[in-house]
Amino acid sequence: MVSVSIVFHLLFSAFSLKRIQSSTYILEHALKMQVIEHPVERLRTALLSTRKDLIETYQHFSRPEKTLLEEGLLPGSSLFSPITIHSDSDWIPAHPEDPQDFQSFYVNPYRRSPSSGCNTIYIQTIGSFGEGAVVAEQYVEWLKDYCQAFYYGLVVKLLPPVTVASTACSFRINDNTHNLQLHAGELLNFLKKRKPRDAFCIVGITMIDLYPRDSWNFVFGQASLTEGMGVFSFARYDDHFYHRSYAGRLKKKIKLKQGDYSVFENYYTPPITSILLLRSCKTLTHEIGHIFGVKHCQWLNCVMQGSNHLEESDRRPLDLCPICLRKLQSAIGFKIADRYKALLCWIEDGADTRQHSKPTQAFQEYKDWLYKCLRILEGEKS
Ligand SMILES: [Zn+2]
Ligand SMILES: [Zn+2]
Known about the structure:
Elements: E1 7-12, E2 25-28, E3 33-36, H1 40-48, H2 52-58, H3 63-71, E4 83-85, H4 91-94, H5 102-107, E5 120-126, H6 133-150, E6 155-162, H7 164-167, E7 171-173, E8 180-183, H8 184-194, E9 199-206, E10 209-211, E11 219-224, E12 229-233, H9 274-291, H10 310-315, H11 322-332, H12 336-348, H13 364-377
Parallel strand pairs: 5-6, 5-9, 8-10, 9-12
Antiparallel strand pairs: 1-11, 2-3, 3-4, 7-8, 11-12
Helix pairs in contact: 1-11, 6-9, 6-12, 12-13
Bound molecules: zinc ion (2 copies).
One zinc ion (ZN) binds next to helix 9.
Function: Probable zinc metalloprotease.
Organism: Cirrhinus molitorella
């Protein structure tokens, strides 16, 4: 088989603005927003597929599981709502592509599935995280545990943290925002060498901004799907990133010397707030979803929706729509209720009054949603 290396950049600063053409878009003139209302039958085919064998495997879901999955297809569903496009700079108008239904996901020969020898997701932190070592260590543990609940059935492990210097990657100061940036492609080369044999994938995370090549402003992340790796930055999830007073802006024009990483010592990293935790959980699970071969969702509100900017990313929910959930379930094989219970446990666990308690305030809406889903899965009337 020819080895196909798909490397793609996630979320970048230059958009191509193209208009959407589809009969399924309804224009809400008053708000100039577009709600993507797919006909129920189209959503049903996207979930079940047209192939006899795939329709048969759908029947392996329990009755309450099917009730939950199909609830999202109905107009006015209280659990899964249609996607609303707020402007031409949103992902879907800027990146027109065919939506991926369950069947096209399933038949993609290049998608990756975990196997018994390769079922661990490795997280590699690069550079410092948070204001203090204790908080940083705790924060990365929370992220790891969240990923393990989200990708229920897989093991998620942290690799020992590395400094920027040990990656030997190139770096620069961004001309517009005056913050430090690391070369994403070189970080991927570094991760490739660190990838353990039993890895389903390895993901590098950093609080330092990334750039893919000299001519680009920045990227939130970059991934190689066929090689099962990705690198993502949470730097721009700091609420103050775009403010002139952002603490990561270098005050004076420093002359950087490639190979001299001392500039990263004591470099600013964002404080770990509930919002930052939520945004990083969302980004990390979205990006790992791509490594499974799940493309950007255009069906319903879903964590796999593409996003071009922070406001759009904040609009996305934390979890998967029924169609993307079936994709993930077919790759891993969990019971849907077990996965939701694990996520609920993550929110409720450790969010107490201890000093470094998990800041889960921003997850309250998600918690209520999980309870609603579980009520359906446990056969109770909601
Ligand atoms: Zn994406
Ligand atoms: Zn989806």
